[in-house]
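Record type: monomer structure entry
Structure origin: computed from sequence
Chain ID: A
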Amino acid sequence: MPKSKIIVCIPARYGSTRFRGKVLAKDTGKFLIQHVYEQACLAKLPDRVIIAADDKRIADAAKSFGADCIMTSPDCASGTDRIAEAIKKLEDRGLRTEDGKQKTEDGRQRTEKKRYYPLNADDIIINLQADEPEIDPANIDAVAKLLLEDQKSRPHALLRKAKQWGAKIKNQNYGMATLVAEFDNESQIADPNIVKVIACSVQRTADSKKLKTQNSTLKTDCGIAIYFSRSVIPYNREQGGIGEKSHYLRHLGIYSYRKDFLLKITKLPQTPLEKIEKLEQLRAIENGFGILIAKVKHTCNGIDTPEQYAEFVKRYSHRE
């Protein structure tokens, strides 16, 4: 069986509502998106890291630090849609001829061998947010591994009597995966800006030291997402809302997709719950597709505001 290609794609939009142009903020001496790109390049499993931009200013910045950037429409509805467009453009540069050149649809010859990158249906595309400069590279490997190998499931503490205990999950049946983590405190659980997830199984935390090669075993169990919400889920009736902290999982905004699934899911219309919660992963669940999850230790908050960026700059300067 051929080795799956793994591509990290960073969707970058200039017109952020709360912090316009944040991906080009440069108070550290590096663009914000450059920090994200460099963290992605530290992951062990990806074959390639690309940026999907909606603005020439982002493309120019990417070129300045040597990143591969693909221009996409400013009208993309979501980061996932932007990635799907970038992946199609990555593949559809033209048809390679026997002499290594390419033939465009009008039959003309042009040499763009370097830019031709055919992908298979099961190759893996990772959606990495452009505003997470402190992403742990091991988390990128972890979300890729979920689609590379069969996993052993282990139920959440609330579901220890469930039949899924110890069941083997055939990951070939899943086209999408993501990561979760434990909460630090109850105030995070109540925060609608931090997405909660409930699952039919949960797992031991992934050990990043085990994530060395594509053929290695991910020493963790995994689960299957039931629902994502900005509300408190599960709701503890006896305690009037939030119960024991260990019963809650926070969602981390990183995804892996099989290429064909990515192209399929982005062609589907938005679903009712997706529109209500403003969570695009619900489109998959509402259409009956399962989402694999794994729990990791290290979390980082994305940068949504100038104040959050200033805090990141302080942390970065202290590390230098």
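Annotation 1: The longest helix spans residues 306-319.
Annotation 2: The first strand starts at residue 6 and ends at 12.
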